[in-house]
Design a protein that fits this description.
The complex is a heterodimer of chains A (113) and B (116). Chain A has no helices and 11 strands. Chain A is mainly beta and 113 residues long. In chain B, the strands form 2 sheets. In chain B, strands 2, 4, 5, 6, 9, 10 and 11 form a 7-stranded mixed beta sheet that branches. Chain B is built from no helices and 11 strands. Chain B is globular. Classes of the chains: A mainly beta (113), B mainly beta (116).
Amino acid sequence: KNQVEQSPQSLIILEGKNCTLQCNYTVSPFSNLRWYKQDTGRGPVSLTIMTFSENTKSNGRYTATLDADTKQSSLHITASQLSDSASYICVVIPTDSWGKLQFGAGTQVVVTP
Amino acid sequence: GAVVSQHPSRVICKSGTSVKIECRSLDFQATTMFWYRQFPKQSLMLMATSNEGSKATYEQGVEKDKFLINHASLTLSTLTVTSAHPEDSSFYICSAGGTGDNQPQHFGDGTRLSIL
């Protein structure tokens, strides 16, 4: 069973609107949680990194939150742009194995004009 | 910022051919690099950990004789898919870095391998 579950699987939003992506994980203990953006046919690019003690981290129009008690994270995209169309991947790094990233399956976001 | 370069970006070849994919860290040294495989609409799956100057560590179910990894320098790791078959067609991605809590692991742009 995947230790990182993301929802929804896919999302279509109008340009300019906001959206929130969810990530539930069971990885424990973990050192940090990361959100990546992956454009089609490209490698993932880091958006945010949060240690287990952090609650929120922003990167421009992207804001990630983390609740270590409920083992949930979210990624909020504000004022979406067409270039935000991509897959957004939640990644959790176990404390005892920094190289063995646990990947979610991603949420495919499509921003329409 | 740190950049990981992967080459080639796309390969189309006949069944039985061996294909080599290169992964380079352009502005930092990487004693460890990672190789992933990604099928459409699925997560990245770790295939192996490439260690500079020593043997790679393969994940369960990954054939080491099929996927040869060489990490001869601090900036270059190669993955060779030997005698490739159509079922080996996939998106292969390498990464490096990310050794600290606040350091992102940098990914290459991937190699789309298509075996006819």
